[in-house]
């Protein structure tokens, strides 16, 4: 027997509410228009693209900063290719950058993971540790130049450890001081990055590991490190760019000495442009730095598959 509804029942039946489409059901979400990107685009064009183009044009001229620029063709580039100081400065820049990455990465990683925990007095110790991050590079350089003074600084009081105390008077000592001062100032910055990333790791992963009997060390290598892979790549790229563009620390601490042993490319650019009044040659060095930093960053992105970065918490 088939039951049918009467017209009265159909009219009196309450309407079924329709669900509003949400993001999870695959409904299209309106994205901000291009107008939102106009201020940032203009800022980038005016303060990044336009200066870079002007530097590229200037690298093909001969200009002392006073008279009108004169087209010089590839003279500046030919001179750089045969300049031993320029070649040495590139190697020094790469060396200091690599040493900075090797020193700062494990320190900032371990300190960041520790600062993300719930230890007693962690907040106070973290605040004290982040003080160097609040200081300018100039202030930090002046501070360490006074502390490392061979006559009145720490080396003068501990000659059994530092010998004659003139660390900045020899090549290895000067390079070591530059790496140490850079790590002292910028490790807190990368520590802050790792701290935020470590706090974002789901605690359910650690709880499951504890149930399986995994200790602290095993959890660090099998959970924390894989979860911080993307953060590590980002931090290393920032270290590479920062290392290749280091200038003020060298200017105040070593001034490129002893001799030219710490004359990195950024400082050599300053010498060319503002001491020798060769702004064409200085512009060529600046363009070389941009190209080298871009190539290294692209290599890191390519090798690490940074462009394919996905969330390490998918499926949770």
TrEMBL record:
Main subcellular localisation: membrane
Keyword Membrane: yes
Membrane topology label: Multi-pass membrane protein
A Pfam family hit: BPD_transp_1
Domain ABC transmembrane type-1 per the UniProt entry, residue ranges: 90-300
CDD domains associated with the record: TM_PBP2
Keyword list, A-Z: Cell membrane, Membrane, Transmembrane, Transmembrane helix, Transport
Chain spans, region Disordered: 1-24
InterPro entries: ABC_transporter_permease, MetI-like, MetI-like_sf
Sequence ranges of Low complexity compositional bias: 1-13
Transmembrane segments: 33-60, 90-115, 127-147, 167-186, 232-253, 279-301
Domain of life: Bacteria
Keyword Transport: yes
Record localization: Cell membrane
Stated family: Belongs to the binding-protein-dependent transport system permease family.
Protein's name according to its UniProt entry: Carbohydrate ABC transporter permease
């Amino acid at each position: 027997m088939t039951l049918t509804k009467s017209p009265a029942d159909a009219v009196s039946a309450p309407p079924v509410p329709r669900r509003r489409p949400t993001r999870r059901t695959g409904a299209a979400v309106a994205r901000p228009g291009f107008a939102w990107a106009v201020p940032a685009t203009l800022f980038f064009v005016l303060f990044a693209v336009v200066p870079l183009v002007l530097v590229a044009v200037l690298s093909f001229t001969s200009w002392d900063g006073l008279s009108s620029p004169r087209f010089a063709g590839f003279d500046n580039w030919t001179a750089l290719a045969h300049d031993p100081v320029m070649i040495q400065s590139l190697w020094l820049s790469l060396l200091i950058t690599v040493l900075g990455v090797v020193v700062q990465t494990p320190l900032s990683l371990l300190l960041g993971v520790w600062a993300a925990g719930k230890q007693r007095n962690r907040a106070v110790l973290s605040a004290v540790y982040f003080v160097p991050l609040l200081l300018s590079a100039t202030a930090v350089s002046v501070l360490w130049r006074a502390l490392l003074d061979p006559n009145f600084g720490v080396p003068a009081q501990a000659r059994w450890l530092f010998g004659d105390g003139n660390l900045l008077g020899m090549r290895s000592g000067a390079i070591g001081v530059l790496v140490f001062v850079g790590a002292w100032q910028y490790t807190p910055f990368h520590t802050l990055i790792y701290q935020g990333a470590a706090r974002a790791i789901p605690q359910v992963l650690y709880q499951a590991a504890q149930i399986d009997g995994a200790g602290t060390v095993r959890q660090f290598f099998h959970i924390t490190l894989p979860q911080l892979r993307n953060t590590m790549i980002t931090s290393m790229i920032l270290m590479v760019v920062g290392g290749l563009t280091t200038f003020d620390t060298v200017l105040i601490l070593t001034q490129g000495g002893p001799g030219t042993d710490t004359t990195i490319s950024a400082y050599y650019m300053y010498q060319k442009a503002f001491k020798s009044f060769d702004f064409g040659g200085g512009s060529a060095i600046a363009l070389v730095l941009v190209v080298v930093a871009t190539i290294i960053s692209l290599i890191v992105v390519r090798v690490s598959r940074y462009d394919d970065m996905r969330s390490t918490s998918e499926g949770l």
